[in-house]
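Can you give me the bound-state structure? Components:
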Amino acid sequence: MKAKIITISVILLIVIIFLTLSMFVVDQTQQAVVLRFGQIVNTYSTPGIHFRTPFVDNVVKFEKRILLYDIEPEKIITLDKKTLIVDTYALWKIVDAKKFIETMKTIGLAESRIDDIVYSNIRNVFAKHSFDEIISDKRESFLKEVTTLSRADLENFGIEIVDVRVKHADLPSENVNAVYERMKAERYSIAAQIRAEGQKEAQKIRAEADKNVTVILAQAQSQAEKIRGDGEASATRIYALAYQTNPEFFELWRSLSAYDTILNNGTVIFGKDLEIFKYIFEVK
Amino acid sequence: MWKKLIGWLVLAIIILIYLSIGVYQVGPSEVALIKTFGKYTHSTGPGIHFHLPYPFQSHVIVDVETIRKEEIGFRTIESYGKISYRTVNEEALMLTGDGNIISVEAAVQYRIKDPVKFAFNVINGKELVRFTTESVLRERIAVRTIDDVLTVERDKIALETAEKVQEILDSYDSGILINKVYLQEVAPPDQVVAAFDDVNNAKQDKERFINEATKYANDVIPKAQGQAEKILREAEAYAQKKILEAQGETQRFLSVLKEYEIAPEITKKRLILEKLQSVFSSTKNIFVLDDSGTIKLLNVNDLIGGDTK
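Here's the bound-state model for the whole set.
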């Protein structure tokens, strides 16, 4: 009885050990390659439980998800001979585990290949375009071109380049200061223009005010002359109407009043027949 | 007998311990993805759950509710409960379309909309969001002028960036949902801030110049109007005076004329004599040329026949 239990246990144990050795699990995020003495016998890209020959087969698993590779920033010369520091990154995934293991073996090696290829393509594409184009919204289409080129280059390695994007595209530090200087000069010139415009406006307002002052005074002066003239005309008319009633008396009246001022306080020499003395000598 | 019992007990404990590996807890904002033999089979919500232990089933927990954040161009530093911000120039400085450089700080908020895609399609979701946002933000800045970025286009940039990042992340099947991109401080770089401020000062100066000129205009024009009124009133006064004088004088003339007409000769003589009296009373010497051409000295007092002094 006891011996029977032990025998069953031993057999069960052996079966379990055998099963663990021959079974392997491929995760949702993984794909696997089964190698027999270095030769690929099978690849599994779907998750689940799979089998292998124990002690003979070796299982290598690879990532199936999208991987992000940050490429070091590099200097790039554009078509118009300007230098640009471009910091790119590539998204990629292993699509063919068999090809990948044949050509790349490890992710590290793959990354260095991606680095070479993507960087070279970026340089090639960007070198055909001017600085302004690269900075403009055309950049996206250039990157699409880089992605397509890199994808074709890496196809045979079981790698798919999902996307190549530029994280930064900056000027080298030696150019940055020149840009700052130019920005400053630009702003100061704008400031000077604004101030000058202010002065122009102010001058305009002052000149307008001065003009208005002159015009207002001149109009008043002109109006005043007219008013005086009207006054004098009315006065003249009044005089004329009144004096007309007896011109003879008027002559006497006017002559007499003239003496007030003519003969006032001093020495005067007259001819005897002077009209104004007519009355004086008649009296005598 | 005892030995047998202890043996079973040990076996039971071992089995219990083994089974307890399959117990897992899911938090309120989380979702657990259960994989059976590595293959995703189903999801479970918050609470205590059990699945078959290794090697049969395993789980991945993904936080789907919590809003995550990535900062671009700055970092939030929390020390002793105080929050401060530090600008990271290498990230913040960006090229604008007109060849200028601007400092832009932004934060992108996101959460996981599809935990299955997020867990099984991408590895480093955090970096993916960060890199994509940085890349798109720079693209959006690069197609605008510095003045637009600083002023009117801020909202648009944030909106466009969020949309574009979402589009790109969807193309990766990443299961990430961008909530919003917030532009924080958008400013000229430190080196040129003074120059930008000068433009603002210049605008103030311009206003000041105009205000001063307006003040001048507001001062001189009413004064001139006042002066004009004065000139007019003076002229009117003169005119009135002339007319009144004329009326007065003529009135006087007419009055005297009326009397004169009653006895013209007598009145005429009277008037002449009165006049002579008043006029010559203040005249010292009067010379009258005779018909012979000799100068005669007239004695005024004799002439008018009376002493007026």
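A couple of observations. Chain B touches chain A through 111 residues (CB under 8 Å). Chain B has four domains: 18-64, 66-189, 190-261, 263-308.
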